[in-house]
Amino acid sequence: MGRMIKAILLTLLVLIAAIGLWFWSKTDPQKLDLVDRIAPGATEYQGKASVGIAYGPDERQKLDVYIPTEVADKPYPVLLFFHGGAWRDGERDGYGFLGRAFAARGIVTVVADYRKTPKVRFPAFVEDTAAAIAWVQTNIGTYRGDAGRIYLMGHSAGAHIAMMAALDPQWLAAQKLDSTSIKGVIGLAGPYDFLPLTTDSSKIALGHWPDLKETQPIHYARADAPPLLLLTGDIDTVVKPRNSKALEARMAELGGQSKLKIYPKVDHADIIMAIARPFRSKAPVLADSVAFIKGE
């Protein structure tokens, strides 16, 4: 009997170690998604995402769609999200927690991937952003989304490319669209005004461009831009709050619509973590974003 107990305990230890290794092999967003799934409390979203839909020929040009499960008498507003990762890292499949959170609140949510360095450099990932917007504009009605109420959201580098696509008219024009296709943009800790380039990732992604001002969202701020909701944390040292402050000030100077919220004691990772169920006490990112989308 003693040998049997020892064997069982050894098997359990091996199993726990294997699960631990598997968990720590995941990316941070994938870990966050898993924790969101298994966290105590009622499951918010009962639906099933449509995953791996191509919006372009490249393997990275794919997206997932989360549809609200409740019955509605009219199409839902739409949120198109782009993840961060310094233009080189990240996968859309780590952001199911975000898709589920917004879909549970009556918003068709699209989580898009895009090409990254070193395979491509600027402006390829902005072109992908515009291509994903065009796919949503054409196809989202099939998923009960309202093509007339499309909002963009991005975190970090994802906020950069979302803002570039919304503010610089050339990218949507290449897709035969204009910025009236976008009802608003939510930027989470985005780099909008970050010259000179100081990080290796930004130099690799953008440093080759002849006029670096053309890589900066603030350069394209304009009065007739879609409304902006700029969310950031006051202790973010990766993308400092001055980026959001500068863009908000420039929009105000030009007569554009923008709103800035700076969350206390929130850093670069906290602001996206706050959308996942276990970490919503960090900041009301989800509630503020939903209110912006629904005009509350």
TrEMBL record:
Kindly give the Pfam families that the UniProt entry links to this protein.
BD-FAE (PF20434)
Molecular function in Gene Ontology: hydrolase activity
What is this protein identified as?
Alpha/beta hydrolase
Checking InterPro entries in the record gives: AB_hydrolase_fold, BD-FAE-like_dom, GDXG_lipolytic_enzyme
Q: Which Gene3D superfamilies match?
A: alpha/beta hydrolase
Instruction: Cite the entry's keywords alphabetically.
Output: Hydrolase, Membrane, Transmembrane, Transmembrane helix
The superkingdom of the source organism is Bacteria
What PANTHER family does the record tag this protein with? Answer: AB HYDROLASE SUPERFAMILY PROTEIN C4A8.06C (PTHR48081), CARBOXYLESTERASE (PTHR48081:SF9)
Domain named BD-FAE-like is located at: 63-250
Give the stretches traversing the membrane.
7-24
